[in-house]
Amino acid sequence: MHPSLSLRHFLLGLGVVAVWGTNFAVIKLALAQMPPLLFATLRFVAVILPAIFLVARPAVPWRNLAAYGLLIGVGQFGLMFIAMNGHISPGLASLVVQTQVFFTIGLAMWLSGERAHPVQGVSLALAAGGIGVILLHTDGSATPLGLVLMLLAALSWAGGNIVSRQAGRVNMLAYVVWSSAFAVPPLVVLTLWQEGWTPVRTALEHADAAAWAAVAWQAVGNSLFGYAAWGWLLARYPAATVTPMALLVPVFGMGASAFWLGESLPGWKLLAAALVMGGLALNLLWPHLRRWVLQRV
Whose C-alpha in 1, 89, 243, 291 is 20 to 30 A from the C-alpha of 259? Predict the structure, then answer.
């Protein structure tokens, strides 16, 4: 039996997934004023400063920190911000990026040589069906390029999950802060190369308080609070108790995008969400359902 979350800890977990989900609408609002790579750079600068002077470096190899910083900073968020800059809606982005669960499982199996369980194949097929539904609709909510970029972002996130798992049990807050130092230099280079100094300077000069608040929310809310609180919960409860709450991220993401940004939710989007989230739920919950059934047979 897995212990259930206390009400206080359930509300903490709910707060984390609410921040992570609504963050997609915040990103979209910020991208109206800032180029995507500049926004990603500022996000990780804000994660580092001043936190890197307040938390000790975790006892992991530098190469592990560098790999995580590059995969999450450049791969996940760099590609995600580019995709959300006109290529995919925030609600769909919050949904598609959750395919990182399948990429994480696939990478872990590839590295360990394990074979997939048939149920995992079914769950992957459901999620792939949801992605297919999105591909079949061209109302401007997502372009093929946007989907590819989001899937690559999800793959990068999965790679980051594998790297962080290799680091062992560490202070996740310190790990995020110190690894972010490796994300900033390549993001700066890519920003100047792809976006140019003039647009960057113009964005910095004209960004209003809302844009800077979005940068702060990315760093403080999404990274520092989110990762620290999630890691705190995982240190006190089994992963099987905590991780299913992440299924609510697309719910908050699509809901916030509809409420704040007026993103439409036609039937095909709801069908795509049901397929992807159904696949995720099946993959996360089937071992516990199987155990529950066997205990009662």
Answer: 243
> pTM for the full model?
0.86
Instruction: Report pLDDT digits (tens) over 16-71.
Output: 889 988 999 999 999 999 999 999 999 999 999 999 999 999 999 999 999 999 99
Distances (CA, A) of 58 to 48, 66, 268: 14, 13, 45
pLDDT digits (tens, 9 = 90+) for 68-80: 999 999 999 999 9
Q: Is residue 76 part of a domain?
A: yes
Q: Does a structural domain hold residue 61?
A: yes
Question: Does 220 map to a domain?
Answer: yes
Q: How many domains does the chain have?
A: 1
1 falls within a domain: no
